[in-house]
Amino acid sequence: MKKFSIQDLNVRYSDDNESLRKVSMEIDSNAITVLFGPAGGGKSTFLRVLNRLNDLADVKEMTGQVLFNGIDILDPKLDVIDLRRKIGMVFSRPVPLPLSIYENVAYGLMMAGERSKKKLDNAVESALRQAVLWDEVYDRLTSSAYAISGGQQQRICLARVLALEPEVIMLDEPTSALDPVSTSKIESLLTELKEKYTIILAPHNVQQAARMADYAAFFLMGELIEFSSGKDMFLKPIDKRTQDYITGRFG
Amino acid sequence: MSTNSQNNPKGKIAEIMGFNLLRLVTLLTVLPILGLIVFIIIKGAPALSIEFLTTPPSNGMRDGGILPAIIGTLYLTLGTAIFSVPLGVAAGIYISEYAEDNRLTRLIRIAIINLAGIPSVVYGLFGLGLFVLFLKFGTSILSASLTLSIMTLPVIISTTEEALRSVPNSFRVVSTSLGASRWQTIWKIVLPQGLPGIITGIILGLERAAGETAPILFTGATFFLPQLPHSPLDATMALPYHIFVISTQIPGMPVKIQYGTVLVLLIFVLGMNLIATLIRSRARSKRQW
Q1: What would be the CATH architecture of the domain defined by B50-286?
Q2: pTM, entire model
Q3: Interchain CB distance below 8 Å, A53 and B177
Q4: How many angstroms separate the CA atoms of B207 and B279, rounded?
Q5: How far apart are CA B249 and CA B243, in angstroms?
Q6: What is the arrangement of strands in the sheet containing A168-172, beginning at the earlier edge strand?
Q7: Which of A32, A178, A221, B281 has its CA 20 to 30 A from that of B114?
Q8: Which residues contact A42 (CB under 8 A, 6 or more apart)?
Q9: Each residue's pLDDT tens digit, B154-204
């Protein structure tokens, strides 16, 4: 099933930085779609269009069509807050909010108006269990989210997205600041989570892209060069530039 | 380091001289302030007593205490806080979090910075014209507080703005991505993190207001009052103006009382300063990011 359907998406910032040109692709549910390519290629911009986080940035021009469950999310009248609850995002560096572990995970639900202590408790526990973090933090939920390791912090960031029971989870280089052990924990987690969620991942290197991709999209300087299944992309890429990048001739 | 001095003894000597010169200059800036404080404590401490702090002046100011002036300054500081804190913090939040960066907001920002540079006597005359005469509040605590508020506002607005800007933008992005509205993000994340800075700014602004003479000279301060003020529309005595009065207007004024009064004002103002410093350093040590 198609979760997103993107047609001729163009984005330009006021300072003419990292823009997108005529990007068209479809994103399947219950699969990991990987966006890869050199820095500044438009991956982050692309992700930030999908949950309209780009509204916070200085966007000069945005045209095209982005359908999420068949609804145009570029519509100015769209309820962006509701959209963001359905499309969660994990960032490249773990940024816990300056609150306790519990409050970090419950934050989204609390902002959505959930008051029931019991519901919040359950949601926090279930999200932390899904992020395989419960056993490590259950006895210090009230301590600061900055008192745990970077790898744990990043799983808190994932857990607080899961607590909202979203449909889509987007991860923008989620392991770029983590050690190999934490990285493999997050990777195996994502492989499990795709049973329930649509996952869009911008990995921070080609190896991770190849490991994780059900589908892969190669972005270069704002253009979508190639889009195919993960196997096809990394075993027999069609475009010369994709081949060069995957084999490490530039990037 | 030692090899350096062997290779180049001249450079080493120049370095020592340079450092000592800087040390001397630093000392020169601190010494006058320290000297002033010590001098006033030595001269003023003998005047301090419970009676001095709790009785009104008597015998044409030459005897008794300074209670009405202390209470008056407290009223004025409180009144200033009531008007300037909500307005200033709200304006700071607006400029930092909501206002778009365009010509108008840049103009407002420049105006706020320039407001802070206006001589206080100009504020005093402005308050006389607007609050005392035009709005007919008379010479009163209300007029004086409003005048001091206008003078304090730029300080509170710019420190609030500064404090909120120092909160990392990634918090706003993360909070927004979790479905928080702009106001929820400000209320739950940005404001609590900026609060110590805001409080520091408020205290520093109020401290300046508490020590000012010129703005209250025409708007609310009075020479002598046998009783404490009963309502915001009464005039009041105040420490800064009282010091002016007893040092220039009264012949044969005992020096002890003059210094004692100055010391009380100094303790009041420096005390506020100390609280602001404590809040700032405590917040800095607790900050995690």
Answers
A1: Orthogonal Bundle (1.10)
A2: 0.83
A3: yes
A4: 15
A5: 10
A6: A87-90, A168-172, A198-202, A32-36, A215-220, A223-229
A7: B281
A8: A11, A18, A19, A20, A23, A219, A221, A222, A223
A9: 999 999 999 999 999 999 999 999 999 999 999 999 999 999 999 999 998
- Which helix (H) or strand (E) segment holds residue A2: the answer is strand A2-13
Q: How far apart are CA A96 and CA B176, in angstroms?
A: 13
Q: Could you tell me which CATH number the domain at A2-246 has?
A: 3.40.50.300
Q: Note whether A172 and A89 are within 8 A (CB).
A: yes
CB contacts of B171 in chain A (<8 Å) are: 95, 97-98
Q: Which residues make beta-bridge pairs with A34?
A: A201, A216
What share of chain B in percent tops pLDDT 70?
98
Determine whether B130 is exposed, middle or buried from the number of CB atoms within 10 Å of its CB (0-12, 13-18, 19+). middle
Mean pLDDT of B244-250: 88
**Confidence at residue A117, expressed as pLDDT on a 0 to 100 scale:** 94
The DSSP bridge pattern shows strands A198-202 and A168-172 to be: parallel
Which chain B positions have a beta carbon within 8 Å of A51's beta carbon?
A: 177
Which tens digit of pLDDT belongs to each residue from A125-151? 999 999 989 999 999 999 999 999 988
* Residue B171, both tokens: 């918090």
Confidence of residue B64 (pLDDT cuts 50, 70, 90): confident
Structure tokens at A26: 């479809």
DSSP for A19-51, written as a single string: -EEEEEEEEESSSEEEEE-STTSSHHHHHHHHT
Chain B, 141-200: which have a CB under 8 Å from a chain A CB? 168, 170-181, 184, 188-189, 192-193
Residue A207 has a CB neighbour count (10 Å cut-off) of: 10
Is residue B20 pLDDT above 50, yes or no? yes
Report yes or no: A28 and A3 within 8 Å, Cβ to Cβ: yes
pLDDT beyond 80 at A179: yes
The predicted pLDDT at position B6 comes to 55
Q: A170: how many CB neighbours lie within 10 A of its CB?
A: 27
User: Which of B32-41, B51-60, B65-74, B155-164 is least confident?
Assistant: B51-60
Least confident of A67-76, A159-168, B2-11, B229-238: B2-11
- The beta-carbon neighbor of A85 closest among B168, B175, B179 is B179
AA identity, residue B222: T
Closest CA to B68 of B146, B120, B141, B128: B141
* pLDDT attached to residue B5: 47
From chain B, the residues in CB contact with A149 under 8 A are none
Q: Which one of B166, B172, B178 makes the best mutation probe of the A interface by having the most chain A beta carbons within 10 Å? A: B178
